[in-house]
Design goal:
- The protein is built from 5 helices and no strands.
- Helix 1 packs across helix 5.
- The longest helix is centred in the middle third of the chain and has 24 residues.
- About 70% of the residues lie in helices and about 0% in strands.
- The protein has one domain.
- The protein is globular and about 50 Å long.
- It is mostly helical and about 140 residues long.
């Protein structure tokens, strides 16, 4: 059975964190499929198949987000999402270093540089949310 808080719905901090992380990854995945070429601009130019990498990472975000909600796959999904967060970090750095303009708030240097340290927080929160609820 799909669960966010192990029998207690989303009523636990881990359950809420899991739900928010899953929604965040699903929203991000949506951009991978609706703004593929824009997202591909973030990937360093030395990497081949940038458009395909965006689509693959979007699919991985969907699988990971859903897997995080299903208790039997929760830990594996969390590890997969952590690997994904590490794998996309060079694109985040490239966005900031190259000041890639995408439009809106993402053009802000504060956003571009400010999001980098949050990657560690996202990794921690993803792993923490996948742990079993304390008894």
């Amino acid at each position: 059975m799909v669960g966010l808080g192990k029998g207690r719905g989303v009523g636990t901090p881990r359950g809420w964190t899991r739900a928010l992380i899953s929604l965040g990854f699903l929203a991000s995945a949506g951009l991978h499929f609706t703004a593929t070429d824009t997202e591909a601009r973030l990937i360093p130019e030395f990497l081949p198949w940038r458009r395909e990498l965006v689509l693959i990472s979007g699919a991985a975000e969907i699988v990971g987000a859903l897997g995080l909600l299903y208790p039997p796959t929760r830990k594996a999904a969390a590890y997969g999402l952590v690997i994904l967060l590490i794998a996309v970090f060079p694109a985040n750095i490239n966005h900031a270093v190259q000041n890639i303009q995408l439009g809106g708030f993402m053009d802000s240097r504060a956003y571009q540089w400010g999001r980098l340290p949050f990657q560690a927080l996202f990794i921690w929160a993803t792993l923490w949310s996948a742990k079993s609820e304390p008894k």
